[in-house]
């Protein structure tokens, strides 16, 4: 049986630009377009020419290679002709080859928000679409508030669709603008509409105000629409739009859709989805959502010992799809919820071979659980887990020992009478019996300690030259100033590898120092031949 084609329409650069806190520069728009082309969407709605300078610049030239470059805007204003409407003219004159016009389809909105008659609204819709089609653009219409409009006045909502199609629109998109419609209502209304209008001329644009945007989109596809609008990582006005990063793998990997439909996304492009989603978050300067379906860091992660045991026998026991199909990876974590299977998987990741009945494994599990009870959290600090494992198994080289450290913070007035804060640290270490002492100033006690500890590591100094601290997170575990502090340090080196280490103490400086010390030790461990596979 031949499959029906579904068309993916991305509106990250238009509806996504309506997200609170998001502003795209011209360079951002160009970079996002490149990302979208990597995953093979059919249409890229790049923004609203005529609305702002960035969008004018973006639409000054064609920005897509394969996807249909689409400009958004509203239909002509009442009381003027299309030729005299600068908004519509800017859209048609742009470098876009498709135009998507928003038109209201809810009688209540037309009366209140536009203050015009229902006929005047249809006239604007008809004339705008006709002008775009006459200019050789692929015209489409976003029927704003379609579902609320259909509930209030189905005849009028349907007339909006028919008017757009008769005027030359390729697609009419049914919008759940306020995002309050539920999947059962979408199903019922789309089925009623597709009884009148062919589904291969219809699209769906769902907002996530009840957390149902993806479900609503899939319900609309099931009920007959063939164009899907959505955004990268679910960006969009208020609670966001339907998340294409969730929808695409569902369409390609779930038989209920994959057996019936095809898209323009290949298996190779699907495997780039995790990277595209995370790169997009980098560009937005925000942390990726660990729990995002398919692509989140936790999407194929397990902490539970019972799950880890079964996963080791066959990954399909606890995975709904193979993680590599979307470019993600399986992760078995070590924590209080762990059993020996979790440890074995984590040890294997660090190149440590050990039998399940080796008594040292019981000792390691006991140590992990004891330390977790004191505030350590190894599921986010894999490098500290590796160090702990080598220590318990007796294979951790004795790189260097810290004999003592001291940090001081002094606020005083300098010679010009200005108030300054001076921070200084002294670290004494011992390597092969030799004592080395370093002093450093920093912009805070932790920075000063880090600089002092790394200043002179004797024979190891050149091995840590490319070590870089990337992030530093502090969490107070029990609340109050007398509480336990957990510090997580993220490091990286010239190889591009990133690792996480942890420190826990009632004293924030002590916890930080421990995490820094662990980071240096892990860097040295990586290059230590005697530690590799050292449990045997
Ligand atoms: C559901 C959606 O997401 S639709 C997309 C919404 N996105 C945006 O609005 C982002 C970009 N918008 C903008 O930069 C500006 O709103 C502009 C440039 C488009 C217009 O700015 P202004 O001319 O100052 O108008 P303003 O934004 O205050 O109001 C919108 C006007 O468009 C009219 N209008 C709204 N929708 C339509 C439509 N589909 N067709 C015709 N006119 C419309 C409104 O009645 C209002 O006019 P009025 O104030 O005379 O009643
Ligand atoms: C067009 C659009 O963004 C909406 O109706 O939500």
TrEMBL record:
Biological or metabolic pathway of the protein: Amino-acid biosynthesis; L-isoleucine biosynthesis; 2-oxobutanoate from pyruvate: step 1/3
EC assignment: 2.3.3.21
Reaction catalysis annotation: pyruvate + acetyl-CoA + H2O = (3R)-citramalate + CoA + H(+)
GO biological-process terms attached to the record: isoleucine biosynthetic process; L-leucine biosynthetic process
SMART domains: LeuA_dimer
GO molecular-function terms, A-Z: (R)-citramalate synthase activity; 2-isopropylmalate synthase activity
Gene3D superfamilies the record matches: 1.10.238.260, 3.30.160.270, Aldolase class I
Keyword Repeat: no
Keyword terms, alphabetized: Amino-acid biosynthesis, Branched-chain amino acid biosynthesis, Isoleucine biosynthesis, Transferase
Superkingdom, taxonomy of origin: Bacteria
PROSITE patterns: AIPM_HOMOCIT_SYNTH_1, AIPM_HOMOCIT_SYNTH_2, PYR_CT
Pyruvate carboxyltransferase domain: residues covered: 6-271
Pfam families given in the database record: HCS_D2, HMGL-like, LeuA_dimer
Family: Belongs to the alpha-IPM synthase/homocitrate synthase family.
NCBIfam families reported in the protein's UniProt record: citramal_synth (TIGR00977)
Protein's UniProt name: Citramalate synthase
Organism: Arsenicitalea aurantiaca
């Amino acid at each position: 049986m031949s499959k029906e084609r579904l068309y993916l329409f991305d509106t990250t650069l238009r509806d996504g630009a309506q997200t609170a806190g998001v502003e795209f520069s011209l360079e951002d728009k160009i970079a996002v377009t490149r990302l979208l082309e990597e995953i093979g969407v059919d249409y890229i709605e790049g923004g609203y020419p005529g609305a702002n300078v960035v969008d004018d610049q973006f639409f000054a030239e064609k920005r897509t290679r394969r996807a249909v470059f689409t400009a958004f805007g509203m239909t002509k204003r009442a009381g003027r002709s299309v030729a005299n409407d600068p908004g519509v003219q800017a859209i048609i004159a742009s470098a876009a080859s498709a135009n998507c016009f928003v038109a209201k389809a809810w009688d209540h909105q037309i009366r209140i928000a536009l203050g015009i008659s229902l006929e005047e609204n249809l006239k604007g819709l008809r004339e705008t679409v006709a002008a775009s089609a006459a200019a050789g653009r692929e015209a489409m219409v976003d029927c704003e508030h379609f579902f609320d409009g259909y509930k209030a006045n189905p005849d009028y909502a349907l007339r909006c669709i028919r008017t757009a199609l008769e005027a030359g629109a390729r697609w009419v998109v049914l919008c759940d603008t306020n995002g309050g419609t539920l999947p059962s209502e979408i199903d019922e209304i789309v089925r009623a509409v597709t009884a009148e209008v062919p589904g291969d001329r219809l699209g769906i644009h769902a907002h996530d105000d009840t957390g149902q945007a993806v479900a609503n989109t899939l319900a609309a596809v099931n009920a007959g629409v063939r164009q899907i609008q959505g955004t990268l990582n679910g960006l969009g006005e208020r609670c966001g739009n339907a998340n294409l990063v969730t929808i695409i793998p569902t369409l390609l990997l779930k038989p209920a859709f994959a057996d019936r439909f095809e898209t323009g996304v290949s298996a190779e492009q699907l495997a780039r989805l995790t990277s595209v989603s995370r790169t997009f978050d980098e560009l937005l300067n925000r942390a990726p959502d660990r729990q995002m379906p398919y692509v989140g860091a936790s999407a194929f992660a397990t902490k539970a010992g019972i799950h880890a045991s079964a996963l080791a026998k066959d990954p399909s026991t606890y995975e709904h799809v193979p993680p590599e199909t979307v470019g993600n990876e399986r992760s078995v974590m070590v924590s209080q919820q762990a059993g020996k299977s979790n440890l074995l998987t984590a040890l294997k990741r660090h190149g440590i071979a050990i039998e399940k009945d080796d008594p040292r494994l019981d000792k390691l599990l006991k140590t992990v659980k004891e330390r977790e009870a004191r505030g350590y959290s190894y599921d986010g600090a894999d490098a500290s887990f590796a160090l702990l494992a080598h220590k318990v198994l007796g294979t951790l080289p004795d790189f260097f020992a810290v004999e003592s450290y001291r940090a001081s913070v002094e606020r005083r007035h300098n010679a010009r009478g200005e108030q300054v804060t001076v921070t200084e640290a002294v670290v004494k270490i011992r390597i092969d019996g030799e004592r080395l002492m370093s002093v450093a100033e920093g912009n805070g006690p932790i920075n000063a300690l880090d600089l002092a500890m790394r200043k002179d590591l004797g024979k190891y100094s050149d091995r840590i030259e490319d070590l870089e601290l990337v992030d530093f997170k502090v969490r107070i575990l029990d609340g109050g100033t007398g509480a336990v502090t957990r510090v997580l340090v993220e490091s990286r080196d010239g190889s591009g590898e990133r690792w996480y280490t942890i420190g826990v103490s009632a004293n924030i400086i002590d916890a930080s120092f421990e995490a820094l010390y662990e980071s240096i030790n892990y860097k040295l461990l990586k290059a230590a031949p005697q530690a590799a596979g050292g449990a045997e």
